[in-house]
Amino acid sequence: MNRRAVLRLARRLPVNLLLVVLSVLMIYPLVIVVLTAFKSNNEVLLNPTGLPIDWTFENFITSWVEADFANLFANSILLTVVSMTVATLIAALASYAIVRHVTRVGSWTYLIIAAGIFLPMQLALVPQFRVVRELGLINSYLGVILIYIAGAIPFGVFLMAAFMKQVPKEIVEAAIIDGTGYFQLFRTIFLPLARPAIATFWVLQGVGIWNDYLVPQLLLTDPTKRTLTTGVLYFKAQYLADWGNIMAAVLIMSLPVLLIFIFAQRYFVSGLYAGAVK
User: Can you say how many angstroms the Cα of residue 141 is from the centroid of all Cα atoms in its chain?
Assistant: First the structure.
């Protein structure tokens, strides 16, 4: 048994070493960002990759005040939460309708909606911009939210429909026998059981909206309506050579995303396997 264990370990050793190397390569830039955020600009220039000699929080204070992070956070949270809430509701209802009415029309509808996943946002941005302009929603949160909702629905329907198809028919039939109505069935059974898929949808699509730069930059011209991504870019232009302040701003912007991944990890992993096992 010991010999078999040694042979098994020897066979896995190259793969494990490769994974360790790849992990170090991925983590190293993040470590540099964190260390740089706690250094003065002179120390960054003299000691760019080493540990800070004098740890300082001045970069975070300067970044928060000068970049007006309170306003940037409020704008990004508003756009992300409203867009994802509306997109989740629409995608969940559409997925429920597709799953409950398994017909040829429903199957084609599902394929047409899911095909939107393969349409790059940049390709659809020109017609979307023209529609938003014709509606008079340039420099309006509503115009940005509508674009985000339209871009999020295809993936949401694809993910939630795959998850809802796994709901046991026995549960559904028992609820119908007990007199559960059509929308009550959605609210009490399908929607709660689809929480892993919804969490995965929020993590993947919500993080994309949170980090998006192109749409806010094109549609929101008012400086007070800037999001984190556009605000940090203007802050970087103001502090072009001050890497301590820039990395502190990047770290502040990234913290909410890291917290989302940490708290939604359990649902996120199970949601990724939606539809993988029947």
Answer: 19
